[in-house]
Amino acid sequence: MDLSTTYLGLKLAHPLMPGACPLADDLDGVRRLEDAGAAAIVLRSLFEEQIAREQMSSFLHTDSHGESFAEALSYFPSPDGFVLGPDEYLEHLRKVKAAVKVPVIASLNGTSLGGWLRYAALMEQAGADALELNVYAINTDTEEDAPTLEKRVLGMVRSIKGAVKIPVAVKLSPFYTSVAHFAKRLEEACADGLVLFNRFYQPDIDVDELQTVRSLVLSTSAELPLRLRWLAILSGRVRPALAVSGGVHTHLDAVKAVMAGAHAVQVVSALLKHGPGYLKPMREELERWLVEHEYESLAQMCGSMSLRNSPDPAAYERGNYMMILQSWRQA
Amino acid sequence: MSARRRLPLDGNEAAASVAHRVSEVIAIYPITPSSNMGEFADEWSAAGQKNVWGQVPAVIEMQSEGGAAGAVHGALQGGALSTTFTASQGLLLMIPNMYKIAGELTAYTMHVAARTVATHALSIFGDHSDVMACRQTGFALLASGSVQEAHDLAAVAHAATLKCRIPFLHFFDGFRTSHEISPAEELTDADLLHMLDPEAIKAHRERGLNPERPVLRGTAQNPDAFFQAREACNPFYAACPAAVEEAMQRFGALTGRKYGLFDYHGHPEAERVIVLMGSGAEAVHETVDWMTARGEKVGLLRVRLYRPFSPKHLLAALPKTVKRLSVLDRTKEPGALGEPLYLDVVTALAEARAEGSLPFAQEPLVVGGRYGLSSKEFNPAHVKAVFDNLSAPKPRNHFTVGINDDVTGLSLPVDDSFDIEPEDVVQSVFFGLGADGTVGANKNSIKIIIDETDLYAQGYFVYDSKKSGAVTISHLRFGPRPIRSTYLVRKANFVACHQFVFFERYDMLAYAEPGSTLLINAPCKPEEVFDQLPREAQQEILEKKLKVYAIDAAAVARSTGMGGRINSIMQTCFFALAGVLPREEAIAKIKEAVKKTYGKKGDEVVRRNHAAIDETLQNLHQVTLPGKRTSERPRPPIVPKAAPDFVQRVTALMLEGKGDLLPVSAFPVDGTWPTATSQWEKRNIAAEIPAWDPKICIQCNKCAAICPHAAIRAAIYPPEALKGAPDTFVAVDFKSNDMKGLKYTIQVAPEDCTGCSLCVQVCPAKDKAQPKHKAIDMVAQAPLREKEAANYDFFLKLPEPPRAELKLDLKNSQFLEPLFEYSGACSGCGETPYIKLLTQLFGDRLIVANATGCSSIYGGNLPTTPYTKNRDGRGPAWSNSLFEDNAEFGLGLRLAVDANTRQSRHLVEALSGQLGDNLAGELLKAEQHDEKGIAAQRERVKALQQKLLRLKGPEAARLLGLADYLVRKSVWIVGGDGWAYDIGFGGLDHVLSLPYDVNVLVLDTEVYSNTGGQQSKATPLGAAAKFAASGKEVGKKDLGLMAMGYRHVYVAQLAMGAKDAQTVSAFLEAESWHGPSLLIAYSHCIAHGYDMALGAEQQKLAVGSGIWPMYRYDPRRVAQGLPPLSMDSGLPKGSARDYMRNETRFRMVEKIDPKRFQELMTAAERNALQRDALYRQLAAVTIPDHPEAAQPAGAGAKGAKE
Predict the structure, then answer these.
(1) Complex ipTM
(2) What global pTM score does this model have?
(3) Which terminus of chain A, N or C, has fewer Cβ atoms within 10 Å?
(4) Residue B369, beta-bridge partner list
(5) Which of B604, B827, B855, B1094 is the mutation pick for testing A, counting most A CBs within 10 A?
């Protein structure tokens, strides 16, 4: 069975790959993912904000103690290797690239245009086959409107595309008023791919300590339908390749995603839960399913259930919501 | 041959650069001011830098200087080329090995940043007292006087020792040379190879111990042999000067820089000559040039090779015309006929006269004098005074210069207005805060000027003795000729004040020459700057017609995200105003320097610095001066009028930076100083201070407990005590079931707080509607200062609750008056909360033996000290002996207390008939286990003293003097991990092995904090520290477990930030145990690399992850049938990752080598789990109870139980 697909211009043996997550944080993990047959490796995001914060924290809280007291002009050794910047990530990227044969996609979360550009270029230099721009920003400014925010992202994507030669995907959140419109604008900004969707870490509240706490809940298949809808809406209507991220736990989830239009299927929670080796049976099951259902190839299935191809396109539109509500009422 | 580079170096780097490249084995131990040499060597080896033979020298940090000397001795005996770096007490610890190394005629060079040896006080600064203590060891002593010389003569020493087999001690002045930055021409590897004789190296190696050609060294010799054998080395000493001379000539031919054993400079027919060695010779050189240019026949004789002393070369170097010699020693030898160099010169002349070989027209008169002890200034005015003395009909001998000795009248009069500094030298003085980066920026400025211009430059930096809010004064010179001014700038063309508040504290404008430029960082508009200056500053600006420029650098820093770091901004202003380089070029170079300095630290740091630089010039404005003063506000007094006389007369001058003006008579003769002085130094260094909201407060007192500076305090008191309270004083009802009807107040000392915000971090009380608001929040200090200062004054007068009635838990402990307050420790220090608690619990009967280190510096560094007294005049008595002997020193204090106690008890018994049996009996049988018992005994002693006043006879008089000892004293031995785990471990172990009632408090920061973060045996697995840059591979020594092995030692491991109640329990239990006790206290530290406000949070993570288990081992529990060890922390939870990643010391390892970090972290976790498991098993073990196991044998007789 031909499971091959093309994502971000990369010819892949099949669509399954680990999404950005800690599994690829060390070379052993990366090798295990490759051994399990990952079609590509997506690295965890490099966060510009985190780098900047660590640098400034070191500058303001650690370095500031130096040159203050006669007996100690500094308090730490200063080995050349101690560089507070993206080097750790880039070095890892380099090593991963050298260690595996499959394409390596680096992921980036920037906070400033300068940061996006700088780190994107560095990732390209370090050997990344493609970039995934993790547009992850919670906008809390009550005075900043949606067009302004979208314009900023579009400008950033355009600039990065002008600065690097490797393909660039944009990982979106579902919280845009008009996802389809924004996707189209991203196409115009020359994005090569769209990843649907980001899962924000949601804050939780510790009611005893009266403080917010970070929580990370693994996804379930229940999160998939949201992705399916937007894959289906965009499939065939925008040029960038589409990837699904969030909610793919089984081969059937993958089948659905591809049917909705995904060229690539990113898996994270299932791998965190079952280990990187889980990719292998998933791929095998996917293949078996296609054979059993007499598909010629994965490509034949891709987008088959999209808004354009689906026998029931209205299901992806507003009516869907209403009908479900009605069915609830009926039940 | 590669070209030699001109580099900005300090003396330490200059010497270490040579030593590292010509050595194979380097054993070191940190000590100021030489630590940097070892650190450079370690860094270079860690980076793979090779010596001239292509090998990376092995650098090893030892447990003490004695250990380093032993390791070096071994390396030399093994046939390796070895070196070490040290100073002061460290050098003294090396002396036994130095005798051996010299006695065995070993080619070896060590480098010493010469520093004062502690006598009546410790001093980290420079003089030759350490080096002079080694002149009898048989080492050759070679002196350098400048950075370039430290580099050059290091090479000469390493070359000469190989030739002559006499070991060399190469030295230069601590701080003045070791820390001065100036341009030096770096010797290439080829130069060094040219200097070193391969045959001599081969011979050195062949003398190494080797079983292929076995020999035996280190024999024991008897009267028949020793003397002759000792004399057998004489020819080598005789040949040494020639070997040095030859090496110097070879060096001169190679580099063009010519040195002699003695170098004369001055008038060829000089009649008056000063003889000295070290950096002071540079100031004499300068003065001699000035005087000879004015026709005076004066000269300078620099001594370079001091041992072996060559009279022949001395006499040959002096002009034949010399009539009078003044020999200056930078050391003091009380009771001697004169100081060493003086005696040597006198002897050389006397012997020449006896031999008839005096080369002079007439025999010169020789006088000797002392100068420059502990880096005391030695400038041309002092040199002139010495020459003037030689012109007197009867020159004064055995004089001092540089001080005013109004006691023995030895000091020479000095004309302070004498000034010879050339006008084409730009002289600048910068007043900054340590934390604002001023010194770093100035170092960069010097580097820029040295790199970019043909100018010569010099930078010297003066630091104050505080670790928080430390003031730095940078002295910079730039000029067209080499700068020999080895003294502070006195008349500056450029004065910069980087912190506006300094105008209230320092007379900065005293440095300013008329017409010079004054740059002010002012938190206001340029047109407001002048009006905000105190009257005196305005007056001086107008009189001197200064050109004043101002910038609100803090605003620029804020707007560009630079926090409190204004260094790049002020540096840009300096270059813009000083005109050393064209503006645009200077800015480009500053940006380049920023990139070089911070590039590794991150592009964000560079970006923000660059943004700040770009913002600077548009914010720099010339201040338009009015024709007259606009302010009548005088500079506030340095100390309040209420301060005691001594503080007014002595301390205040020192605080003002004018301590040099104090005469000898102002000082205690034996190093004894009054306590309770930090209260008079109101530093106002916090931008924000905590404000208390009593509506939310749950009255837990955690804020007061964690405060490192005793600047937030809690009190309970009867309502009537509120009479006369300021209107803004806040009091609420005390919530307590036991003590009803009392009022409660949390009060901040606004002028003493350092703004660390630890109190806010630990405060558990949040506003339910708005949880970001706590019972304590940080707010701006300035608006509250006056009001809260008045409130605090009132607070201090509130009555203390009766100690005897308080149940001593964490909360109540904070109602006791801290007798350790406002220390100069770092803001957010993790050590001082423990010391403060110690003084709250036992301060009125506390004797502290304090090891050298952070705790001795913030505990005992002048001008003001934090140990204080209670209302009865009682408080901690404190002393620092040495670094290495603190446990033994503390034991000695215990023995003295016991001896006095025994004697007083004996006298009570002897006088019991006259005292009344009841009183005597009660005094002798008194239980003093707790505050109640202590209070009762104090009453009895008071009654005893009253009775004794009425009794006659010598026994009554003796008892009167000793009666205080009937109240139990608490002896505490306090120090850091460097002391307890390393240099003092042998002594500590011995003291713990004994049954005496001493309490040891180890403030464990897991590195040598005071000297800058070198690893100790307390450094945990996985942490990077100096000498362990890639992360320590082995675990921390388990000091507690070792002590438990004795079974009679009370041991506890504490982390106040994690569980403060356990800390209080451990202190109380330790003190009440009549044998030895050991408390190991987790102390977060700036050397861990994170925001100290989060210190308590980190402690929780350390404890929670099992990295820092908390426990108490109490030998008394054996008798109760309980396991002596009890765990106070829960089972380790989760990974140590969260803890480790928060701290630079661990994070550094991860950034350099993630794989190694992973391995070390896993090992650290495993280690923690294993240790925890071991402890938990021990905590389940009961020990069969034998009566003697409950108390150490003889503890009753040897403790203060009596």
Answers:
(1) 0.92
(2) 0.94
(3) C
(4) B328, B399
(5) B604
